[in-house]
Amino acid sequence: xxxxxxxxxxxLCDFYGQLLxxxxxxxxxxxxxxxxxxxxxxxxxxxxxxxxxxxLKRAESTLRNYERxxxxxxxxxxxxxxxxxxxxxxxxxxKNSPGRIARAREILQEIxxxxxx
Amino acid sequence: xxxxxxxxxxxLCDFYGQLLxxxxxxxxxxxxxxxxxxxxxxxxxxxxxxxxxxxLKRAESTLRNYERxxxxxxxxxxxxxxxxxxxxxxxxxxKNSPGRIARAREILQEIxxxxxx
Lengths: 117, 117
Hints:
Helices cover 79% and strands 0% of the residues of chain A. Chain A has helices at residues 5-16, 22-33, 38-45, 49-70, 72-93, 99-114. Chains A, B: Keywords: Coiled coil.
């Protein structure tokens, strides 16, 4: 599946971010989450631009390695597609059916919302 | 939630087993999956009973540590409960409604089955 870099890094961090060092987590957050440049992070932390770049590359490689081994994001995305399909079917059906289906739809919606933590 | 040891170890291995050494994975599979005794594993691998015990303890501690940091099993179990509830509601409803809901139910069932895959 195609996915932009920021979305993929966000997912990788959602799943495996706690396995990185605090500094790696922080740099990723600033670079991918807050759109800081390498130079801005370097300046804020009193390190070279190259050091920031290396830290980000190493962190990304670590995260991808966890996903290569565990494949939990791949599984999560497949489930999410199926859930979305089920929710859509129920959504369409809901117009002329009460109670129980509506509740099922709510539950599916809750699951879709809790997925991303 | 309460859960027996074997079930919990199976879940831990499903999620994080690939992060263990091959030997750790094998010993866990034999001990928890195939009900081998420590002594039997020791004999098969030409090591002491104590070495088998230590390997299992270390592996278990590693797995629990990943779950403590990432919490993916906890999240998975909560989702699973919600999915099961939604599936049950749809199941009961299904008796007097065709097509679309039945398909949604199938999808939920597929998800429930792929969870442990």
